[in-house]
Every structure is written in structure tokens, then in C-alpha cells.
């Protein structure tokens, strides 16, 4: 065993589940982005797609053509953990364990996941689990193995409601979740057409660890499979990078509130006191 | 205290505990009253010695002269022990209740109020047999249910159901009142207009409908003259 490996055995990794309750709020994107961003900071990261039967984290990460084994194989002992974890070629230290497309969520049990989580913790610094939408078996499996949670919520009433429910369920399992508000449109917030993150924190009352603005680059990134954090000028990518830094120990990094991007001349006009 | 009946004898005597209670009609001339007293006491001389005598003229105040004079007469003639005015009579029932309350009768009252701290989140349901007090918020999608009143020391954004199954005397109070739905007894109010600002408001039943009012302005219990057990 090399020194590096000895150290890794001694330091247990953190298992974080990324969840939301509601579907389509950006859990998968967030998992992919955070995984890439933490790996870029030099930590050994594995991202796990827990959405068995509807896998798509591999597509978002651009690794779908390299899948041989999946999480069900790894948990059931059909393959070794190393075989199931696909290494990203662009980012060192980033691994993906994909979901099975042919099974359904009942194939895994929370008990099996707890064991699997312990195994993962020994091998990686960060284990990020992409939880499926809903609060059924897929959620239970994901949460069973995790000791931390990030709740993704968009500034919509429905999303806040589901996030609130999920936060309650996480508390019931002794996990104190952290909140990421995704898809903020600062212009709409300014007009009062969108919930502000302050209102959301007011209702959800959990620790906020990041505000992510709406960004068209996200769609491009998921379609091309290029990690968002590798794309320059992506506002969402930058926001996720800052969240990754906060997760990775820089807890006092201030949270930037997305601001409306005014037109260049309008900005100058505002500075000079004209316009509006 | 009732006034004495005019067509009855002007002087009546009655044993009361360890004393003799003499009821007099003060409208009669004093000599006549003295004569009557003399007539009565003469018959029960042996009882009068050292007895406690209470002279009741029908009113708590006034007629001091009459009482003094007759008292002196009784002491001198029949050697009664003491003469006094009647003690302040037993309080009427309401006053008695008030006195009890002022003396903290609630000290022995075991109230069943379910008092919780913290946030009630979506999907959670809190049920109380009687009153419910939450020091915290009730989120949208959460439900709080009580047999009596509901008090939310925080923001009420969820559903509150008070007075179950059929008590319409109860109230639902929140420091910031923005519920999705309110039920009091069997009456339901849905789609209440949101308040423009943070106001301590409460819902109660008035003429068969649920009415929401500013709590401090309406002050529903402030008008009660003394504290009562609810």
C-alpha cells in the first residue's frame, strides 16, 4: 500500500445526497457540476446516479458510451467497485457510477445501500448521490447511505412545497440538509414575479449554501456532455464552483446574490443618474 | 341585600350560628322598636346574657344612631355580650367566582394545552386534543388540528383546523396570519385573501361565517373583566 492509499483509508469520505422532492429542478445538473468542481479542487469524487430505471447522469456528464457495469451490479457484487466506477478523462479524480436502465428501484434496499455507502466512503473523499424525484424507494435508498444532504429548490411555490416535505423527512432521519436555490432569474425577482431566495429561506429555514442563476449554458452543457464548470462565462457554472468550495471547507465564502445584467449603456446611464 | 318586607313584624329574631340576628325595620319610630325588642328579649332573658347580637336594619350603611341606641339599650337591660352590624354578606355567585379567580383558582387547574416549538413542515400533521400552541411557523402544506384554540407564535401558512369536532367558540391566532385554509368547528374558510403586511390576526366565527380580524385591535378577550380558565 502506498502512503497515499494509507491516508485514504484513514480519512473517511463524506457522503452527500442531492435531492429535491420535485422533479426537473436541476438535481442531476447540480450533481454533475458539483462533482466536477470538487474534483477540480483535487478531491477524489464519485458521483452516483440513484435514479434506477431512468438513468441520465451519465448523459449529462458525457460518459454514456463507457458504461459497462452499473450500481446494481456493484451493490449485488456482480462486479467490483472499481469496475463500476467510470473515470472521467477530462477531470482527474472524478468518477461516475451509473444507474441501471433495465431494473426498477425496488431492486436495491436501504440496508444494502448503507453497506455500499461504507465501502464508497473508504475509497473516495466525496460521494455525491443524485437522488431520484419523489420520496419513495429511490429516495429512501439514497438517503440511507448518506450522512449529509443538499436540497435543490427552484423559486417556484411547488418546488418549495416539495423541498419543505423532503427537508422534514431528512430531519426525521437525523440529516440536517443544506439548501441550493437553482434557476434564479434576477430580473423576475426584481420585478416581483419570482420568489426571492430570502422568502424561500424564510419558509424552509435551513442553511443556504448557494444561489444559482438561470443559465442557457446548462442546456448546452448537458446536451454536449461537457461539464459546466469547464465552460467559461457560465454564470451557473461559477455559482456551482463556489458551492463546491463551500462544501470543501471554505465555509465563510460569501454567497453572491445573482444580479440582473443590465444593458451596457443603461448601466452607464444609471451611473450618471439618467435613464430608467 | 333585600329590604325588609313592610307588612311583616318590624322586629324579628333569628338564631344564626353563635349569635342572634335581629332584623329591624328602620322606618318605624325608635321607641316602638325598643318596646318590641324589650317584649322579645324579656321572653328569652336567659339566652340574652353574654350573647352576640347582630342588628340588621336592612342596609349595610346608615342608621348608626338607631343601632347605637338600641345596642346600648340591649346591653344595659339584658346584658348582651356584644352588638354589631351584620357582616358583609356572602357574595353573589359572580362576585364569588371573581374572588376565586383573583385568588388564583387556576392554580389547581390542569390545562391540556399541547405546546410545541419548531417548524411544522409540508406533509406534517400536528393534532392536539384541546388547545394547541406552536412557538414557530406552520409551513404551506402542513396541517395543525386542535379540539380547542390554535395559537401560532409565528407565521401560519398552512391549514389550521380548530374546535374539532364542533366547537365554534374557538379562535385561530397567528402573529403572521397567511393560512391556506381555516376550519372552525364545521365551518370552512378557504381562499382567504392574504394580508398585505405582517399582522397578528385571528379567525373566529361570527353569524355562521369565519371572520378574520386584527387581534390587537379587536382584542376579543381584553373585555373580559378578570382572567378565566379557557
Automatic annotation (TrEMBL), chain B:
Record keywords, A-Z: Cell cycle, Cell division, Septation
Septum formation inhibitor MinC C-terminal domain span: 116-213
GO biological process: cell morphogenesis; division septum assembly; regulation of cell septum assembly
SUPFAM superfamilies from the UniProt entry: Cell-division inhibitor MinC, C-terminal domain (SSF63848)
Pfam families registered for this protein in UniProt: MinC_C
Gene3D superfamilies: 2.160.20.70
Subunit structure: Interacts with MinD and FtsZ.
PANTHER family found in the cross-reference section: SEPTUM SITE-DETERMINING PROTEIN MINC
Role according to the record: Cell division inhibitor that blocks the formation of polar Z ring septums. Rapidly oscillates between the poles of the cell to destabilize FtsZ filaments that have formed before they mature into polar Z rings. Prevents FtsZ polymerization.
Assigned protein family: Belongs to the MinC family.
The protein, known as: Probable septum site-determining protein MinC
Species of origin: Desulfonema magnum
Gene: minC
